[in-house]
Design brief:
The complex is a heterodimer of chains A (about 350) and B (about 625).
Chain A (H helix, E strand, L loop, with lengths): L3 H4 L4 E8 L2 E8 L3 E8 L3 H13 L1 H7 L15 H12 L2 H8 L5 E5 L10 H5 L10 E3 L3 H10 L8 E5 L5 H13 L4 E4 L2 H5 L5 E7 L2 E2 L9 E4 L2 E4 H5 L5 E10 L7 E2 L5 E2 L1 H8 L1 E7 L5 H16 L5 H13 L2 H4 L8 H5 L2 E5 L2
Chain B lengths: L7 H9 L3 H11 L8 H17 L2 H15 L6 H5 L1 H12 L1 H14 L2 H17 L3 H15 L7 H14 L3 H17 L5 H14 L3 H17 L3 H18 L2 H16 L4 H16 L7 H18 L6 H16 L3 H23 L3 H11 L5 H16 L3 H12 L5 H17 L3 H21 L3 H21 L9 H14 L3 H9 L19 H10 L1 H8 L10 E5 L6 E6 L37 H9 L7
Antiparallel strand pairs in B: 1-2
Helix pairs in contact in B: 1-3, 3-4, 3-6, 4-6, 6-7, 7-8, 8-9, 8-10, 9-10, 10-11, 10-30, 11-12, 11-29, 13-14, 14-15, 15-16, 16-17, 16-19, 17-19, 18-19, 19-20, 19-21, 20-21, 21-22, 21-23, 22-23, 23-24, 23-25, 24-25, 25-26, 28-29
Classes of the chains: A alpha/beta (about 350), B mainly alpha (about 625).
Chain lengths: ~350, ~625
């Protein structure tokens, strides 16, 4: 498998974006690259930056949650949906919108660039009311990254699964971990302390992390999830302290650590990058802060569908988000319709799906 | 040259006269039916037939070939017969085509002893490459290299060279470099190259393959080694050479540091010429970086330079500059006094500083005038001045001049990274003029070099710098293909545009994804921290990628302790002298790519949409193929 075409499934449609002074978008499938567009980037980068900044701000989290102390506080700027719509209007070409309505396409592969990598572009498609993509949406930093992941992804039930509890004093996390363990077939390593991690006999092919995450440090190496009274950082992952089998799936049920930030020369940085380095083929995570209720519902259901039913991560996540959107308890937590992108946009599959 | 031991002149005369009948009679007399042929006979007949084909034409000579073919194509087990296979294969190919020649060579490989069978395999692989079947060729070459390593290794160097060509065709320039280096190591081990030649060959190969990190490390190593032994001028020169390489990559901060280090080293001896060299290094550190510098900094640098120059030579103000430039020109032309040359070059540094100051002060025309006065040449300062000049011309919309200057300069030898830069500038000039077709072609030409250099980089910082530099050509290529091109089918344009967009992004992430699968990178062995080469690592490489393993194993002579160089007189089996050889400077060249803090040592290629879009380094392929050993192909 050396080319994108070889790694595409019959129902796949892909969009490769390149953002500079201009935005270039190539759309294709397993038959051909059907469409290339070059358009003036205009405000798309600025809008994407505004979106990323807004969803990453704690103030917004509290404003959007019904019952939170600052619920309904004056918005810092334009509504999130408006910003997202402006990005999408430029970044999603008509051919992709048509593909979303075409039954022959079941999965969307997005290879975004720069700031666009931080924006849930697919959200507009899934909200169009059309068929969308029944097998879900996959984000990869580049087509090369997608092919590399597809080449090594492990399929089938996990043989060496582990669940990491980030904070033993957090009852919500503990309950989530209990559910995760129950969802996994066979023996599961439970990682509550550093010693448990050190005692891992072999690399895990599926890891579920229930913790609190943060991605606000300036150095990507310091992006981290809480663990054993301290942090498990991207730097730790780079240094091999999280033994992960090549082709593994990691589900990060934590705030922020699915965020991907643009680096120099069209590079993308983030905690996920460290996980890819450690061997992952798929990372399911949240791009920005999420409420525990949403995280446990979406990530828990995703895990169950993958581990128990053998679903592909992208399809599993998409279904989990759909189910969560229909959950009245969760809906009740959303303060206003305009805030919906904030609640349903952060969930992402990075890798090959 | 015709084979000896025969009346060559009369046969040659017949061929020249196109007397096929006479030639046939003469050859039949010499090689009568039923006579027992020696290997020399087979070689000689092949040679004459090939000569006749070239002089007369295959159609006319074909009946003669048919007559002799059974003997020519007969397989013999002796080495001298196998040694004539290249000529015989050429004859078979000339009359029956490449496919038949490949078939015959493969039959031969099965018929001759194992240790010799690699030779016909290598010759068959060469033809498969010519038929553009590299996958088949590499299979044969893998086997051929192993067989060539047995016994006296008489065809090993040639086989390694062929493998290098083949790896370039397969798009693995980094591995091709390893095979070329293995070939050099083998030449050294077999006494065909002296230690000095070995070092030169390694540097030359690194240059050809664009292996900048390797070159930098090599020069750093030489510098450290020389400094340890008190040879400071040599050390300073090596530091500065490494710095220039880094500057080409765009790693200007590190280049500046190394230049200052070179200056300090040179200053310590206190000789006049070394002081001038130190001055040059210091000013070079300031002028080498094309990024914006403040006017105040530049003014300070100009003042420093003037003071420094004033201390050791005349202040090059006004006429002084022109005078020193004349001296430089004359001294270079005459190969004259080194100190004078050094001082003249030092003046160039000052002029470049002044030009930068003019540029920074919003006086581009004055800056361009100063650059134009300097001219061009191989010295670092002149090359830097030239790069600044071309950049400034482009910024000021003088694209005609950019094209003219850069095109002329490209005909001279230069570092691959410099070549990339000039090609990219020409592409930018064409794009500025609205000629998108030419812009795309030049951008692709630049990217060929860019990819070659990228493939050899293993230091993450250097890689980052080079990725930044590549953005220029990638961006031009993408913009040039942004709309339909008359000369390019639309499908091709879409595929190429997709490939360029993908190539320009997330390369380091791609590395990450691939690295943990332990795809062996360019440098897998012998880091100092790991205590040198280990059997375990070699076994690891062997299991992961046998092609890498072979190339690395063959370089092991460079890592042996207590190497000696045995010098033999012609015909003597006893060495006339035995010299201890210190190959420490070469030992930095193999690296561990899996260290936890060495994240990005391997290069993950971006992908194309499908196989038809794949590009490979045709320039390097042609260069290597033309340098093949032996006659013909």
């Amino acid at each position: 498998m050396r080319t994108l075409r070889e790694a595409l499934l019959p129902g796949d449609v892909f969009a490769s974006l390149w953002l500079d002074e201009e935005l270039v978008i190539a759309v294709g499938d397993s038959h051909d690259v059907h469409d290339v567009m070059r358009i003036e980037a205009g405000d798309v980068a600025a809008n994407a930056a505004e979106f990323v900044e807004r969803v990453g701000a704690d103030a917004d989290l509290n404003r959007y949650v019904r019952g939170a102390a600052t619920e309904g506080a004056p918005d810092a700027g334009r509504p999130l949906r408006e910003i997202l719509d402006e990005v999408v209007a430029v970044a999603l070409p008509p051919s992709l919108l048509e593909a979303a309505d075409d039954d022959m396409y079941t999965r969307l592969l997005m290879f975004p660039d720069g700031l666009l990598a931080g924006v849930p572009l697919h959200l507009a498609l899934s909200e169009r009311g059309a068929g969308g993509f029944v097998e879900g949406v996959v984000y990869a930093p580049s087509a090369g990254a997608y092919v590399a992941c597809a080449r090594k992804a492990l399929r089938g039930p996990p043989e060496h699964a582990a669940v990491l509890l980030g904070d033993t004093a957090d009852d919500d996390l503990a309950a989530e971990v209990e559910d995760a363990v129950a969802a996994l077939p066979g023996a599961v390593w439970l990682l509550r302390r550093q010693a448990d991690l050190d005692a891992l006999k072999q690399p895990v092919d599926l890891l579920y992390v229930a913790s609190h995450g943060s991605a606000d440090a300036s150095d990507e190496d310091d992006w981290a999830v809480l663990f054993d009274g301290g942090e498990l950082t991207a730097g730790d992952v780079y240094r091999g302290r999280l033994p992960i089998a090549p082709g593994a799936l990691v589900v990060l049920s934590a705030c922020d650590v699915g965020h991907v930030a643009p680096g120099p020369a069209h590079e993308l940085e983030g905690f996920a990058r460290a996980l890819f380095y450690a061997g992952c083929a798929n990372v399911v995570a949240a791009r920005w802060p999420v409420l525990h209720e949403f995280a446990s519902a979406v990530f828990g259901a995703t895990l169950a569908a993958v581990a128990r039913d053998g679903a592909a991560p992208a399809a599993a996540l998409q279904q989990a988000v759909r189910d969560a959107r229909a959950d009245v308890k969760l809906k009740a937590l959303i303060a206003a319709p305009d805030a919906e992108p904030f609640f349903w946009g952060p969930f992402v599959v990075l890798g090959c799906g | 040259v015709a084979p000896s031991g025969f009346d060559n002149a009369s046969l040659a005369a017949l061929i020249k006269r196109a007397d096929v009948k006479g030639l046939g009679s003469a050859m039949r007399r010499r090689w009568s039916a039923g006579a027992t042929w020696s290997a020399d006979d087979a070689g000689t007949v092949s040679w004459f037939l090939l000569f006749a084909v070239h002089a007369i034409g295959a159609t006319w000579v074909h009946p003669l070939y048919v007559e002799f073919a059974p003997e020519l194509k007969r397989h013999h087990e002796q080495q001298e017969w196998v040694g004539t296979m290249n000529l015989r294969a050429q004859a078979v190919e000339a009359f029956e085509g490449e496919e038949v020649a490949v078939e015959w060579l493969q039959e031969a490989a099965a018929a001759v002893p194992y240790a010799l069978s690699g030779y016909p395999m290598m010759l068959a692989a060469r033809r498969l490459l010519s038929l553009d079947r590299p996958e088949g060729a590499v299979e044969l070459l893998r086997a051929a290299v192993r067989r060539a390593m047995i016994g006296v290794r008489w065809y090993l160097v040639e086989t390694l060279g062929e493998m290098s060509v083949c790896q370039v065709r397969l798009g693995r320039v980094d591995l091709a470099f390893e095979y070329s280096r293995a070939s050099v190591a083998q030449q050294y081990e077999s006494g065909q190259a002296s230690p000095g030649e070995l070092l030169q060959a390694c540097v030359g190969l690194a240059e050809m393959f664009g292996q900048v990190d390797y070159q930098v490390e090599l020069h750093r190593n030489v510098a450290g080694w020389a400094e340890q032994e008190g040879r400071r001028p040599e050390a300073a020169l090596a530091w500065s050479t490494a710095a220039i390489q880094l500057a080409h990559l765009g790693a200007w901060d590190e280049a500046g540091e190394l230049l200052r280090c070179a200056a300090e080293t040179a200053d310590r001896d206190g000789r006049a010429i070394d002081r001038v060299f130190a001055f040059e290094c210091r000013t070079l550190a300031r002028i080498i970086d094309p990024r914006d510098v403040t006017t105040a900094d530049l003014a300070l640098a100009v003042r420093d330079a003037e003071v420094a120059l004033d201390g050791g030579m005349r202040t090059p103000d006004g006429d002084g500059i022109a005078q020193w430039l004349r001296i430089l020109h004359d001294a270079r032309a005459a190969g004259g006094d080194a100190v004078v040359q050094e001082r003249a070059i030092a003046t160039v540094h000052l002029v470049v500083l002044r030009a930068r100051l003019a540029e920074s002060s919003g006086e581009p025309e004055e800056a361009l005038e100063l650059y134009a006065g300097i001219g061009s040449g191989r010295e670092a300062a002149l090359r830097v001045a030239f790069e600044h000049r071309v950049r400034l011309l482009l910024l000021n919309g003088r694209s005609d001049e950019v094209r003219a200057l850069a095109s002329t300069a490209l005909s001279a030898p230069m570092a691959q990274a410099e070549r990339y830069s000039l090609r990219a500038r020409i592409a930018a000039a064409h794009l500025a003029d609205g000629d998108r077709g030419a812009a795309y072609r030049w951008a692709e030409g630049a990217l060929v070099i860019w990819r070659r250099v990228l493939a050899g980089l293993y230091d993450p910082l250097h890689k980052g710098a080079w990725l930044n530099r590549g953005a220029e050509a990638l961006g031009i290529g993408i913009r040039a293909l942004g709309e339909q091109l008359e000369e390019m089918p639309e499908t091709v344009r879409r595929h190429r545009l997709f490939a360029l967009c993908e190539e320009s992004k997330s390369r380091l992430v791609g590395d990450m994804l691939n690295r943990r699968d332990y795809v062996p990178g360019p440098y897998l062995l012998a880091s100092a921290e790991r205590g040198g080469t280990t059997t375990g690592l070699l076994s690891f490489v062997a299991s992961e990628d046998p092609d890498w393993s072979l190339a690395l194993n063959l370089q092991m002579p460079l890592y042996a302790d207590g190497l000696t160089n045995h010098v033999y007189a012609p015909g003597s089996s006893v060495p006339t002298s035995i010299e201890a050889v210190d190959l420490r400077p070469l030992r930095t060249t193999l690296r561990v790519s899996i260290g936890e803090d060495q994240r990005l040592l391997a290069s993950a290629d971006s992908v194309t949409y499908d196989d038809t879009d794949a590009t490979w380094d045709r320039e390097l392929y042609a260069e290597l193929a033309s340098a093949r050993e032996g006659p013909g192909k």
